[in-house]
Amino acid sequence: MAATPETLLSVLSNIEITFQEVEAFYTSSIAINDVRVKLSCFLKSADSSRISFQAKAHLGFLFSHSPDRYADKDRDIADYIENAVFSDILLANHNDLEKISQLPMNWPNHPSKYTEEFSNYLDIRRFYQLPLVENINQVRYLEELKIDNGVVRVEIDFQSGTIPASATIRASDQKPAAREIIYYMQKGYPKFYGIITNIIIQDVSYRLTFFDRHKETLKQCISSFNVLSKKVKDERMKERQIFAFDYYHQLAIELNSYREFGLFHNCIRPNNILIYNNDQTSNVDKVFLFNGECIQFKLAYGVTEGILVNSEFDRKNKRYLAPEIAYKQEYCKKYSINENEFSYNVSDAWSLAACILNLLTDQNADKWNGLNFTESLNKIVNSLVKENDKLKEILLRSLENNMQSRLKFNEALVLF
């Protein structure tokens, strides 16, 4: 039987399909190397939503046990299918989870890395309540769904009541990284409510990620300060530096934790940073970073292929992009590096420092990442940050134009 989209769909759309039935189809009908390419393409196609949840989980489990599972030629396909399966598991309701609970953990007579992760993910999800997939009536959006907003306030209605929440917005037709979902589940606060994919607005596919209701975004915090008179700003500058320092500390810890999860954010902007009211453990508000690329990191030393500034949203927010991203070709010529390589670690460090500096000033902000603006940027930092030497050091070293000498998050945390 040829592994055509039609044959795949005819078998895999069955919502009652058993593991044994998927195994029989897999082993008797499709060559093992062929199925990876076909399944990968199929999962990315428009029909992928018609594959039953348990069929996808079973087939992902089966293909993972082939002898050349981690061969280089199959790595990208394997990673994609694993992420697709794991993401669906983590965002499934408990009824669907029970349908795949009887997988043979030692098939075929030996455990695998995939099997262990599959089992761990399944256990994590069983003990976590996701309001968006359990007994929901509707989601009501209290603000317009626009990518420029970064986040909107919503209300999630259930039979038993209503939960006020926030939804971060990202233009994407890709599944979220499974590790990103695990990270949100283990975060604890703010509470993670779930993800809705494929929301189409003006022919663009959006992904919404839901959390506890925030107080304001960092962008709103910046805007409200910038409209004040110079006199009032000067009077508040000392206090402003205190919470700018604390905000940086909180976000650096979080981004360093991303690294430990094998994730890189790559989308650090003030409208992606949510501010929550302080709790009993601190007098300072809590800040959290959401809605990024959250790209799963696979290559050594944090270096991977560069990205293009090609969306309208990127162009509007270019001031928060590191120089090597905002002006990639010119940057590569100036510092003699390969234009297809950069480091998420140091690029994210620049973006976070720019957001924190923006809390203190908007002076020439559109020029901060300019390749010939380093000296002027240093003058801005030195003239503003007079009350906190550690904050000054962090900003100066993080906003270095040369990415090779830029301060990394783990290095910055030593200063606290």
From TrEMBL:
InterPro entries: Kinase-like_dom_sf, Prot_kinase_dom. GO terms for molecular function: ATP binding; protein kinase activity. PROSITE patterns: PROTEIN_KINASE_DOM. Residues 75-416 form the Protein kinase domain. Signal peptide: none annotated. This is Protein kinase domain-containing protein. It comes from Stentor coeruleus.
